[in-house]
Amino acid sequence: MKLEIGEIYIKDIKLDKISKVENGVLYVNADEVTKIVLEDDKLKSVKIDVARPGESVRITPVKDVIEPRVKVDGRGGIFPGMISKVDTVGEGKTHVLKGAAVVTCGKIVGFQEGIIDMTGPGADYTPFSKLNNLCLVIEPVEPIEKHDYEAAVRGAGLRVATYLGKLAKDLKPDNTYSYETKPIFEQAAMYPNLPKVGYIYMLQTQGLLHDTYVYGVDAKKIVPTFIYPTEVMDGAIVSGNCVSACDKNTTYHHLNNPVIKALYEKHGKDINFMGVIITNENVFLADKMRSSDWSSKLAKYFGLDAVIISEEGFGNPDADLIMNCKKAEAFGIKTCIITDEYAGRDGASQSLADSDVSANAVVTAGNANVVINLPKMDKVIGMLDFTDKIAGGFDGSLKADGSIEAELQVITGATNELGFNKFSATGL
């Protein structure tokens, strides 16, 4: 399966009468976006704003970040099963508005939405401070169940991102990148002298607003399976979770998964990148046993010599991470796990809820308990009402002068376990 990604660089977003892309500027008709958001009768209103890199702006509570993309050629459409009809994606041509994102925010759903600062120390911890963000502050019709509100906001963000992505369909890309993974036997035969490496991609599926969707299916209902890496780039995996902001995978993270890109960069040179095994992170022991059995079994079936394993979230999913690692190693498959740490504010506590001697190659995205001071911003997109309640905040986090003292947990993407942040080897 071969996919060409054409990137159209966006240097600014401006609200205008006509939606278009011209000279690197994304012009957006706010009235059209409003209509798209309010297609769902569970939503009452939306305020549309723009946040640019370097501006004194704070966005909160952030729910999801989505990159506008469009299929130009090949099967299916972007976000299959969610926006486009169900069809296998990951081949042909896809155009991307690189440097732009849709950010959904508004009244809090749970307690784990986050903060994006566009300048100051907080901006250094989130990759989204480097993007031009079209922010949708969405309010629901009351009364509404939390899961209905989350689903409605998720759908609105995906619809708007799809609408913007279509503006790029007939544009000439500034850069084009090609990615290809062949059927398993062909792929193995291409580089017989290189180690066969795969990727076990753990998806947050604990339920109660901790959900991820694959082709529109709640991933807690799947058993681990194979997926072409390029399918992920076309939106086959969508975030629907409200786990701690620092290490949740937004939809933007999935579309731009740096583990997949790094493996492709090594492909044919140092390794033979065979593909991706997706697995879930369910809460019950039987489910954890089943899923880790299947993911390791698939890795052995594909004849892999090594796997990268990335976690999403912390605590309960630490058990899934270690099970996946132990069982792959037991089959003679070398592993490297990617996680973050909750080691206490002084860094002296146990970093993970589970461990094993087989987990001897570990990449950490940082300690989410570190306390950070965020200065007041001149402008807030969204609301500060929930600052003391979100994960990483505490009573008194929001100061009288508008500054915030909180743990790193509050910042969207700060310790992302795909390594998608400033303090890793791979980022924007």
Automatic annotation (TrEMBL):
The active site is at 242 (schiff-base intermediate with substrate). The modification Pyruvic acid (Cys) is found at residue 242. It comes from the Bacteria. InterPro entries: Gly/sarc/bet_Rdtase_B_asu/bsu, Gly_reductase_pB_sua/b. This is Glycine/sarcosine/betaine reductase complex protein B alpha and beta subunits. Keywords: Pyruvate, Schiff base. It comes from Brachyspira murdochii (strain ATCC 51284 / DSM 12563 / 56-150) (Serpulina murdochii). Signal peptide: none annotated. The keyword Nucleotide-binding does not apply. The keyword Transmembrane helix does not apply. One of its GO terms (molecular function) is oxidoreductase activity, acting on X-H and Y-H to form an X-Y bond, with a disulfide as acceptor.
